[in-house]
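Why show two proteins at once? Because comparison is the fastest way to build intuition. When a single record is shown, students tend to memorize it. When two are placed side by side, the eye starts asking what differs. So, the first record is below.
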Amino acid sequence: MLTYRQGLSADIDKIVTLVDSAYRGDSSRAGWTTEADFIDGQRTERQEIIEILERSASTILLCEDDGQLVATVQLNKSADKAYLGMFAVDPQRQATGLGIKLLNQAENFVQKEWNSGSMRMLVISIRKELISWYQRHGYNKTGSTKPFPYGETRFGIPKRDDLVLEILEKRFI
């Protein structure tokens, strides 16, 4: 049975392991959200998760199946908007509907708990299939981009020099 809750400090190592397995390395290739072909290294680290959990305007929602962590999403509050990041589903469970269930939980959380009128996210622009997935679920390209954080190894080690972050947004009201 799926349950949802906010992450705690006791969950840090499990969060790091799941996020890295969903985005990087050979384990990520079992799913469709891998970045392993264009970014090496880690996707997150313990210290980043600690900082997220300690901030009052952020949280990490966890999805567990019979007590086992199967998906996570980071949420940050900013004025009347929310930011979604580090969305990770166990690669063995991708393409099963679990991602949309967690996305719906995240959207409900930011609307009810934070009274957010919209949610934004950054997606690597070459991830056309991922951008399309978000568009099918109500997110739109804003027309704005941000540079990829080259040189910040906590986000990984890029294998390409053409990475750009596309800004997507879904308005709730």
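Second record. Ask yourself what differs from the first in the token line.
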Amino acid sequence: MLTLVRQALAILLALLALRGVRWAYAGFVVLAVAYFPAHVGFHLQPRACELVFDAPLALFSLTNYAHIVLFGTFFLFSALHAVADSTPVRPAMIFAAIATLLMGALIELAEGATGHGHCRLRDLIPDGAGIVLGALLFLGLIEAWKFVRSARQ
């Protein structure tokens, strides 16, 4: 039941954030980061984060397609939120990139603090790939929107 309430709240906050409501965006981020502590009943069991990796592990991390898709989606969500708040495209993309990297770092820290999941610095690599994917989709959406608007005139 609590999971259903959390999911409904996340959807409501996401919809409000996409309309440019800043507090809803912040609430969505807090809710996402709070998932890990809530999942373990707020019983923190800190574990060390893996901070060192080599080139083969860095390349291997790019096979973490779930991170790429999730963080690509978060980038797109963040950029659309910024544009809905009347931010020009380039600053919106910069905001979204910074927010996505920060979210990735917060998720890794939450995993390390709770012992749920694996806190690894190298997980920021697929998050960065997600930023590239999200940016390409965002630019595609912007161009499609411009095309539709010009076709209407």
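One difference worth noting in the second protein: The chain has a mean pLDDT of 91.
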